[in-house]
Design goal:
The complex is a heterodimer of chains A (372) and B (515). Chain A is mostly helical and 372 residues long. Chain A has 14 helices and 2 strands; from the N terminus they run ααααααββαααααααα. A two-stranded antiparallel ribbon of chain A has the order 1-2. In chain A, strand 1 and strand 2 form a beta hairpin. By secondary structure, chain B is of the alpha/beta class. Chain B has a 6-stranded mixed sheet, sandwiched between helices. A 6-stranded mixed sheet of chain B has the order 18-21-22-15-23-24, sandwiched between helices. A 4-stranded antiparallel sheet of chain B has the order 2-1-4-5, covered by helices on one side. The longest helix of chain B has 16 residues. Chain B is globular, with a radius of gyration of 24 Å. Classes of the chains: A mainly alpha (372), B alpha/beta (515). Chains A and B meet through helix 8, helix 9 and helix 14 of A and helix 10, helix 11 and strand 20 of B.
């Protein structure tokens, strides 16, 4: 019996990422050797970082943001939509939500909820534009979301000036939105012992909930079935009665809403203001991690943690005289090799299943087809 | 059944000699102990039912895959073919069932594509044109080199395909179901060309399952059944009935339906449906018909005359420009595909791979496809996975879908079993109208007979059925009434009790009036 969760299947699922990481380490090793560094020493330095509580907190915190970003991308991917605009969606959303959060004063849980809601709405709106353009005018979402990223950058730069939504921060020449008062802040979680004042973002819980919601929506609801069907074969989905245009808009709205959340852990958990140094580029990291995690909620969690570990341990390389950019090479090679590895495993699996079916049917055939 | 060694031309080695070819293949009918001997200057037909293994065999000969065992000899030399270009180098050419031509290039450009004659870095079209005209004249192919392929009819396109293969120096031609897309008149022209070719010393392997054609054109006939060659016969010593028996073994399934179950309750009324595409071309023009409960209405027509568009319009995948569609007592003209399906339309799509299945999803998810809003697949907005799995198992058992489990991917099943799953799925939602587009295309004999039975049962239960098929015997055998479609119009009615395939064929080309 080849059940739904056979050992072999799990083995195959794990094989691709493991192969890709091993391959990426090999390539990185060659690069390190060529530059005259000792790869083993570099790796052990990075791994040693894992033991430090402060680094552990940082890894979890970055991973939270990466996770949200990757889920936003994955929602599109499951429908063959390439939402490159997560980056612009979360920046615009975070900036406007921060401005709203700084402007209002309402009791504790609701204040943060309003900020989060505003962020989701703005993200959904910005992604929805691309969805509508695709369904009404046939504009590829790849093109439109890239353009919308630039427009978002422009809008953020325009609004984030003193006199509009920004004010100068005391004692520096940084500018940002009015800080969100304490009623709107989400307290951190002191779950890592020995990390001192470093706490894990409270919104890590939100990221986990989003992951569960994503899983439930896709595998347990009709909407999710329609979405996956459209992604795996559009003609078949149309014939089955899926209104593909409507699905495109819904998927973009959903993807954008989750994208709107990307900036929230940082905004509500540590910076409390959207300022010039708010992180950018998280949307692109999300694309890489969605690929890495193969759009699966669990896979993306591992991908986000791995990515975050590489990012947060790269500084330690400098002490060894290794440029920390080495990590970028490693991340790049992981993404490239994982895409190839997954494709190989996928093909292998299809052939394997076909062969199994052939063999099992051949075993029972003689009684049924003895006529010839 | 003749002995292989009729040594009349011992000096000339056979063009093709296959010995004990075996090819095992996951999930589909494979080849076992195939023996085939094709002489120069003859047309050698290879016949067998859909799924008997003809295509597998031809792919072996054309280098598209390697056999597990057995030998291939071309013109007396044993060879090993690793790729189609190997086969082409050794003078074997293949004309595929589905043409592989670029519509927006001229005949000349299509022919030279991939083996362009060069003079220095420039293409030498003058030389190419000379050679093309030379080949065309020599074999009477009557090809016009400077016309765009999109302007050509089906028969002419096929001659271009043949010329393309000859241009590359083929001395042995494989024609895969060449008449499937042709009307009878074009078939005659093709046969004329084949006679020219063989008189020039070419060897032609003619794959078909249409026995009358085979008897008319072949010099020798090899029959394949269940993946193995069962006999080689001369056309003079067999009848088409005898051939058919060789093809299917002892019992001969017929698509015939006996007593009529037609009621006078109209289930589907289509009136004046017209479909105009963006460029203003009429894909469907004023199509009107009625199907009653318990009636099978067959639509005959050469492929590409609007049948696919008609089906898509009925299913709501395209919007009619004008006209109405009434299902039961509801005017469904403006309804979505989903709403139509929910209110009793079932659909067996022409191309099951593209429209009927999610190949990389397990069978139980495919059970839901098209019925994801209905019990037992969902309750409200949530999927009922348990219910869907249970019902998938029921379909697998009742409809004899050969699979080890409902968790395998749909791509792992053979065409016939995929189709049985689809038929089972579509019949499970208690439909009132079934639209069946080429329901037995590319399935094996067993599955074909089973699917015919299912259609008959459905009709007996009072279902209205719209049947579209390229298989005229199937159409005549199963239908209660027949209509002929030509260039988007219903041009003729025919009574399946009296009409012959030939008469239908004429009506399909618009040659003479109604059949």
């Amino acid at each position: 019996m080849s059940g739904r969760f056979s050992l072999k299947r799990i083995g195959l699922a794990v094989a691709a990422p493991v192969l890709a990481i091993v391959f990426a380490m090999l390539v990185t090793s060659v690069v390190l050797l060529a530059a005259g560094n000792n790869p083993l020493q570099a790796y052990s330095t990075m791994l040693a970082q894992l033991g430090k509580p402060r680094i552990q907190v940082n890894i979890l915190n970055s991973a939270t943001t990466y996770y949200l970003s990757a889920i936003a991308v994955a929602i599109g991917f499951r429908m063959n939509l390439f939402n490159i605009g997560v980056d612009g969606q979360y920046r615009l959303a975070a900036m406007l939500a921060a401005a709203v959060g700084g402007a209002i004063a309402i009791p504790a849980p609701f204040h943060a909820l309003v900020v989060i809601l505003v962020a989701m709405l703005v993200g959904a709106f910005w992604a929805g534009i691309a969805g509508l353009l695709k369904t009404t005018r046939g504009v590829s979402e790849v093109i439109s979301t890239i353009m919308l990223n630039f427009i978002a950058t422009g809008i953020v730069a325009y609004l984030l000036t003193p006199g509009r939504l920004a004010e100068t921060t005391q004692g520096s020449n940084n500018i940002g939105t009015k800080p969100i008062p304490e009623s709107g802040q989400v307290p951190g979680l002191a779950i890592i012992p020995g990390a001192g004042r470093n706490e894990v973002y409270g919104l890590i819980v939100l990221a986990i909930l989003i992951g569960i919601g994503y899983w439930f929506l896709l595998s347990r609801t009709r909407f999710g079935f329609d979405l996956r069907a459209t992604g795996s074969s559009e003609p078949a989905a149309v014939a089955s009665g899926v209104d593909v245009k409507r699905m495109v808009v819904y998927a973009m709205l959903l993807s954008g809403a989750v994208a709107g959340l990307v900036g929230m852990p940082q905004l509500l958990g540590s910076s409390y203001t959207y300022s010039l140094d708010f992180p950018t580029g998280l949307g692109f990291t999300g694309i890489a991690i969605a690929l890495l995690g193969r759009n699966s909620p669990i896979g993306i969690a591992f991908g986000a943690l791995l990515w975050s570990f590489l990012d947060n341990s790269s500084n330690s390389l400098e002490f060894e005289g290794v440029p920390k950019q080495t990590v970028l090479i490693m991340q790049g090679v992981i993404v490239l090799s994982i895409v190839i590895a997954y494709e190989l495993v996928r093909r292998y699996r299809i052939r394997q299943v076909a062969r199994d079916v052939g063999r099992q049917l051949a075993a029972t055939a003689p009684e049924k087809e003895a006529v010839a | 059944m003749i002995p292989i060694s009729t040594d009349t031309s011992a000096a000339v080695p056979p063009a093709v000699e296959l010995r004990d070819i075996t090819k095992t293949f996951p999930g589909v009918v494979a080849n076992k102990d195939i023996n085939l001997l094709v002489r120069r200057g003859t047309v050698h037909a290879v016949v067998g039912e859909n799924g008997a293994g003809k295509s597998t065999l031809m792919k072996t000969l054309y280098g598209m895959h390697r056999p597990d065992s057995g030998t291939i000899a071309l013109d007396g030399q044993q060879v090993s073919l690793a790729s189609p270009s190997d086969a082409i180098d050794r003078g074997v050419g293949m004309v595929h069932q589905h043409f592989q031509l670029a519509d927006n290039l001229t005949v000349l450009e299509n022919v030279v594509l991939g083996s362009e004659p060069r003079r220095g870095v420039r293409l030498d079209f003058a030389e190419a044109r000379r050679r093309i005209m030379d080949i065309s004249d020599r074999y009477g192919l009557d090809v016009r080199p400077d016309v765009l392929v999109e302007e050509l009819g089906v028969g002419e396109r096929q001659r271009v395909e043949i010329l393309k293969v000859l241009y590359r120096g083929a001395r042995t031609l494989i024609l895969d179901e060449p008449t499937a897309v042709l009307v009878p008149q074009e078939v005659d022209e093709l046969f004329g060309a084949l006679r020219e070719l063989k008189s020039e010393g070419l060897a032609i392997i003619f794959i078909s399952h249409k026995l009358d054609e085979v008897l008319a054109v072949a010099d020798e006939i090899t029959v394949i059944r269940r993946g193995t060659t069962v006999a080689t016969v001369l056309p003079t010593e067999v009848t088409s009935r005898k051939l058919a028996e060789l093809m299917v073994g002892s019992e001969l399934p017929t698509p015939e339906t006996r007593e009529s179950t037609v009621t006078d309750v109209a289930e589907l009324v289509v009136s004046g449906v017209t479909l105009v595409d963006r460029s203003g071309r009429e894909l469907l023009a004023d199509v009107s018909f009625t199907i009653h409960r318990g009636e099978v209405l067959g639509i005959a027509g050469v492929e590409g005359n609007g049948q696919a568009e008609l089906v898509e319009t009925l299913m709501g995948m395209r919007r009619a420009t004008s006209g109405t569609v009434v299902l039961g007592s509801d005017d469904v003209t403006s309804w979505s595909t989903r709403r139509r399906r929910e209110s009793g339309m079932a659909y067996i799509a022409e191309d099951r791979i593209r429209h009927g299945l999610l190949l990389e999803s397990p069978l139980w998810e495919n059970r839901m496809l098209g019925h994801q809003t209905q019990a037992p697949n969902s309750r409200g907005p949530l999927l009922d996975i348990k219910g869907a799995r249970k019902d998938t198992q029921r379909i697998v058992d009742e409809y004899d879908v050969r699979t080890p489990s409902i968790d395998v991917l749909a791509s792992a099943l053979s065409g016939g079993n995929q189709q049985k799953l689809i038929v089972g799925r579509e019949m499970s939602s208690e439909p009132t109208l079934l639209i069946a587009s080429h329901p037995t295309r590319g399935v094996d004999v067993g599955a074909q007979a089973a699917i015919w039975d299912l259609l008959r049962e459905a009709r007996a239960k009072g279902l209205a059925v719209l049947l579209i098929s390229a298989d005229l015997d199937e159409l005549i055998g199963l239908s209660d009434s027949l209509k002929v479609m030509l260039r988007g119009r219903l041009v003729a009615d025919a009574d399946p009790a009296t009409v012959t395939p030939e008469q239908l064929g004429s009506a399909m080309t618009g040659a003479e009036g109604a059949a």
